[in-house]
Write a sequence for this structure.
């Protein structure tokens, strides 16, 4: 095999509204429960991939810096096996999202890598196959193959665990405001955190049961264009996830004092008639779910407390695509 064409893909981050928190299969990254997310237009990863027989090892450049990343090479090995090739790859990736701080950079990273690498290897995967492939790099990446609202079906094996888009009416008005509390590396990774919770939290079985109920409620709210229920269920599900972390052994917590401060601001705005709700992934950053008409009021209030540069506005984003 000679050097192939370089393919470049862009994929956007997604923020889970019904959380995925725990695996039933670590190798295949099969989740304990189904989840639902919103793909965002503001944050994305662009990745270029070329396979070349002349390369002795995979070469990975992230934001201009050469990095040794066994996880990337392991993921590319899955692609090579699917394509029946042995060539190593050159990967150039640029993140337009703060890494490791709860803004789902791994989702956009592996969704972009799955699309670019599969095309560069000569594969022509459909969206379902791409979603399954992206999942092998990072569970949430399977959702970033699609735009807008997306459900990840837990499945029972590699073939049945993949994401698919959720239809919403054109009148479903939704935006998300990300408040960047911190861009520092997390003290405990998402992967390590959820593993600890699954193994040690006495409340984990109840989480799985309740999350299935939350997912049904959220999908009903989407179908009925019921923004208030949509926001309430999303906020409550996030708080259940963070409560799990504090029930693990040893317990841990991703929230910072400013996270709590921001949550109280959202609650105060809501008491004043602004329809807004918060959610947090595995990090301190607070995401505010709102309607577009309320964006400015929320941005102004958060900017007063945290600074305008930390308040980032996003809307529903597109599916992963070649550029």
């Amino acid at each position: 095999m000679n050097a192939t064409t370089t393919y470049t893909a862009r994929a956007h981050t997604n923020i889970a509204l019904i959380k995925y928190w725990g695996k039933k299969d670590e190798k295949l990254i099969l989740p304990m429960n189904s989840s639902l997310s919103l793909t965002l237009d503001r944050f994305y990863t662009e990745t270029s991939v070329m396979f070349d027989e002349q390369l002795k090892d995979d070469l990975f450049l992230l934001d201009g810096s050469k990095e040794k990343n066994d996880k990337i090479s392991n993921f590319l090995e899955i692609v090579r096996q699917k394509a029946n090739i042995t060539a190593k790859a050159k990967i150039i990736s640029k993140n337009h999202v703060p890494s490791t701080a709860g803004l789902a950079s791994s989702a956009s990273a592996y969704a972009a890598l799955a699309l670019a690498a599969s095309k560069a290897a000569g594969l022509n995967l459909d969206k379902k196959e791409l979603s399954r492939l992206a999942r092998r790099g990072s569970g949430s990446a399977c959702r970033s193959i699609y735009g807008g609202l997306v459900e990840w079906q837990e499945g029972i094996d590699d073939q049945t665990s993949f994401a698919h888009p959720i239809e919403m009416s054109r009148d479903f008005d939704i935006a998300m405001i990300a408040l960047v509390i911190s861009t520092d590396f997390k003290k405990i990774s998402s992967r390590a955190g959820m593993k600890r919770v699954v193994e040690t939290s006495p409340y984990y079985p109840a989480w799985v049961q309740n999350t299935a109920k939350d997912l049904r409620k959220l999908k009903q709210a989407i179908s009925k264009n019921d923004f208030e229920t949509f926001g309430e269920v999303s906020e409550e599900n996030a708080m259940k996830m963070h409560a799990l972390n504090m029930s693990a052994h040893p317990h841990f917590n991703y929230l910072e004092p400013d996270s709590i401060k921001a949550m109280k601001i959202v609650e105060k705005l809501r008491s004043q008639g602004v329809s807004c709700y918060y959610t947090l992934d595995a990090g301190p950053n607070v995401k505010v779910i709102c309607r577009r008409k309320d964006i400015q009021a929320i941005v102004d209030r958060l900017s007063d407390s945290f600074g305008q540069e930390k308040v980032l506005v996003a809307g529903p984003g597109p599916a992963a695509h070649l550029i």
Remarks:
- The CA atoms of residues 25 and 323 lie 33 Å apart.
- The mean pLDDT is 95.
